[in-house]
Amino acid sequence: MAQRILVIGNGMVGHHFVEQLIGSDAGQAGRFDIQVFGAEPTRAYDRVHLSEVFERQSSEHLLMGPASLYQGDSVSLTLAAEVGAIDRAGKRINVNGDWVDYDALVLATGSFPFVPPIPGGDVPGTFVYRTLEDLDAIQARAKTSKTGVVAGGGWLGLEAANALKALGVQVHTGKATQQVEPVGHDAAQNQWHSTVQLWPDRSAGGALSYNGGPGCGHLQKTVA
């Protein structure tokens, strides 16, 4: 009898785990019954390059692996799934109100965006940047907006800034430290058509503005 393995989470890590499990000797021998539950309505996709959705007007290229991966006899995928409880003693989980038994349980739920507990962090027009649904909400808001602020100057923060730029919004990016994520080879491939104002360590009274062209750019010190 096949061992039932439940995977909670269909992000990049959960998807990679399923790929490896299916490709293993035991997986090839049909010894597993793998059931995957994802909270989002879309199967696993590359979150790192979300801003490309605006450039290409599609998210199809971000999808990870073929859809057929989850359509085999030993693998199933349930999207928009809400796991409400885990009964470890009974070896079962509650999914959308129904109990599902398991032999082994894998938690691959990933991370969640941290929203600083500051006034205004939950007002209309404030978004996190992590899912395709987040992008839909940002895109809708951008249609009636001229300026956007991104809190965080790391790689994902700059990706979020690039997403706003692609929507024609003037962007200001703030970071708590002096150092801004370096513009490396991959970032240089972005098409920078307008200036992104970068504000590292705002208390120091300094600012950095990125004045790049397609495929290149430099950081320039300005006075706050």
From TrEMBL:
This is FAD/NAD(P)-binding domain-containing protein. The keyword Oxidoreductase applies. It comes from the Bacteria. Keywords: Heme, Iron, Iron-sulfur, Metal-binding, Oxidoreductase. One of its GO terms (molecular function) is iron-sulfur cluster binding. It holds the Pfam family Pyr_redox_2. Its cofactor is siroheme. Residues 4-181 form the FAD/NAD(P)-binding domain. InterPro entries: FAD/NAD-bd_sf, FAD/NAD-binding_dom, NasD-like. The keyword Iron applies. Pathway: Nitrogen metabolism; nitrate reduction (assimilation). It comes from Litorivicinus lipolyticus.
